[in-house]
Amino acid sequence: xxxxxxxxxxxxxxxxxxxxxxxxxxxxxxxxxxxxxxxxxxxxxxxxxxxxxxxxxxxxxxxxxxxxxxxxxxxxxxxxxxxxxxxxxxxxxxxxxxxxxxxxxxxxxxxxxxxxxxxxxxxxxxxxxxxxxxxxxxxxxxxxxxxxxxxxxxxxxxxxxxxxxxxxxxxxxxxxxxxxxxxxxxxxxxxxxxxxxxxxxxxxxxxxxxxxxxxxxxxxxxxxxxxxxxxxxxxxxxxxxxxxxxxxxxxxxxxxxxxxxxxxxxxxxxxxxxxxxxxxxxxxxxxxxxxxxxxxxxxxxxxxxxxxxxxxxxxxxxxxxxxxxxxxxxxxxxxxxxxxxxxxxxxxxxxxxxxxxxxxxxxxxxxxxxxxxxxxxxxxxxxxxxxxxxxxxxxxxxxxxxxxxxxxxxxxxxxxxxxxxxxxxxxxxxxxxxxxxxxxxxxxxxxxxxxxxxxxxxxxxxxxxxxxxxxxxxxxxxxxxxxxxxxxxxxxxxxxxxxxxxxxxxxxxxxxxxxxxxxxxxxxxxxxxxxxxxxxxxxxxxxxxxxxxxxxxxxxxxxxxxxxxxxxxxxxxxxxxxxxxxxxxxxxxxxxxxxxxxxxxxxxxxxxxxxxxxxxxxxxxxxxxxxxxxxxxxxxxxxxxxxxxxxxxxxxxxxxxxxxxxxxxxxxxxxxxxxxxxxxxxxxxxxxxxxxxxxxxxxxxxxxxxxxxx
Length: 710
Description:
This protein folds into 6 domains: about 1-35, no CATH class; about 40-225, 3-Layer(aba) Sandwich (Rossmann fold); about 230-295, Arc Repressor Mutant, subunit A (Orthogonal Bundle), CATH 1.10.10; about 300-380, Arc Repressor Mutant, subunit A; about 380-550, TATA-Binding Protein; about 565-710, Trna Endonuclease, Chain: A, domain 1 (3-Layer(aba) Sandwich), CATH 3.40.1350. It has 20 helices and 36 strands. Strands 5, 6, 7, 8, 9, 10 and 11 form a 7-stranded mixed sheet that branches. Strand 13 and strand 14 form a beta hairpin. The two termini are about 55 Å apart.
C-alpha cells in the first residue's frame, strides 16, 4: 500500500509497508525538489514502565536516568511520565536502510507508577502499549518477592502487546541483597526477565548500565512508527514544553492560541493540531476528554484524583465502599499529600475521572433519596460472615490477573445484565437476586498471592437451572478474558435426602474426571454422586453461549448508556462554565429534563434573567436513534409520548443534546422543531429529525440572546 499525504499546500511522501517492505518514490522525476518542504520525520515512541511497591526508589531512578543527577524524592503521586532523550539516527544510518530524506527520531518515555494500593485499580488504564517494563524492588526487604509477582501479573494482563522486562534492585547504597543473587536471577529467568541489575540513584552505581539496557532491550522494529511533516514535530515539542511548564488543562482553541504565539513563523491548521494531539494521546502523553473539547496535558491527574476517591471510600465509617456523587464532584475527598488543581480545572478533571471510572466498569451508580451514590465493589472492607442459611457453593474458579480490576468489573457488569440485581456487597464478595424468581446467587473472591485468586460461586437450590447456569457461565466467560486458562471446578451436593452435604474436595473431583469416572462417592455418607448431572449437560449446551453473549451485550449497553449520559451532562457543565452561565443538574423536572442552564442578562454580569434552557440528556428514556436521513441527520423514534407532549407546551426551550457518530456533541431546540413540524397537537409524534448545531459556548450565547431578548 502506498500513501500520499497532503497537508495544506504541502505534499510529502510517506514510507509505507507493502509486500516488499518499505517503499519510497523518487519524486525528482516528477517535481522540482527545491519546492518541497523539509524532509519528513519518522517517530518511534517507546513506552517504558517503572513499577514496583511504594518507597523502593523508582522516582529517584527516573530522575537519575533522565536528568543525570540525584534528587531526594517522596512517594510518587499516581504516576508521571518524562522523556529519556536519545540521539536521532544519523543520515548514513537512514540511507543504509533505504529511506533517503526520512530522519528517524526515537523517543523513550519513562512512566513512574506509584506503588500505593489506592492507585492500583486505575493503573491498568495506563499500562497498555508498553514496550519495556522495569520492575524495581528494595534489596533490603526480608522477602523482596512478596509484591513482585503481583506487579508482574498486572503488567502481563494490562498490555496488549509483547514487551521486554528488566529486574532492578534500587537503593543498593543502603545495603546489598538480603537474599541470594541466585534466587533473584532464578525469579527473573522463570518470568522472562532479560537482565537483573543492581543500582543506586544516589551514587549513580549501575544507572548508566540500566540506561543502556533500557535502550537495547526495546524491540524497536516491533513498534509502529509515524511519519509526519516538520510542523508536526514542532507542535509536538511545544505541547510537551507546555506540559513541562505546568499547563494542565486547555481547550483545543486555547491550545491552538498558545502554540500560535510560540510558533509565529510556522502556521498550522486546526486539523494538523488535532492530528498531533491524537498522536500524543495514543501512548497516553496527553488525554483528550470526551466533553468540552479539553486536552489534559497531565493525564496522571486522573489517577491522582481517583486515588483520592479510593482513600475517601475506604475510610467510610461503615466500610461499605460508597461515596455520594455530589460529594465527589464537589472535591470533598481525602487528598492526602496530592497537590490539588485550581477549582475550575479541578471541577473538569473530577468529572473526567468519574466518567472514566463508570466507562471502565470500576463503579456502579445507585439512586437514593439523597442523590446518586457511587458504589465501588473492590473498596468494601466489611467482611461477610459465614451463615448457616447462605446459598451452597456451586463451583470454584481459579485464575490469574489484575485482581482488583477483574473483581470490580465482574460485579459491575453482573449488575447491568438485567438478569441479576445487586443485593449486598462485602469485602470481595457480592450477593445478587435473580430477577426472574427472586432466588439468591453470589460470589466471593479469595486472593492466593502473586496475582492468583479463586472465586467461589453460590446458588440457592431453588434457583432455576437456566439462571444458575447463566450465572456460572457469565462468570467463567468474564474470567477467561483475563486468563484463558480459567476453569470451573464443580461442587456437588449429595442426593441422599438424609445427607445433602456439599462435596467440595477439589482434588478428588479432578482426579475422578481425569480417570473418566462418571460418579464419585460422597465423603460423608459414601452414596454415589453422578458427575455428569443435568447441570453439566446444560453447561455443555451451545444455547448458553448465546445467552451469555446476550447478557454481555445488555451489560455493556447499560454501562455505555451511563457513560454517555455523563459525557453529555459534563459537556453541558463545561460549556455553561465557559460561557459564564449557570449549569444546574436536576432530577427529571416537569418537562422531563435532567438539567437546565440559568441564563444571565449579559456576560460577565451575575444578574440572572429569570429565563433558562432545559436540557434533555438521557435519550434512552424517551427516544432512540433508528436511522439517518439524506442530509446525514439522525432520525429519532419516540418511545414515550408524554414527555414530547410536555415539550410542545413548554414556554422555555427544550434542548436535545446528542453525541454524533464522529464524537462531536450537538444540540437542538426540540420545542421549536415540534411547533414547526407538528402544528396539530392532537397527532402523536412518532419521529424527530435531529438537525442540531455544535454545542459550544458561542451557540449557547446565541441561544441566550434569543431567549432573553438581547
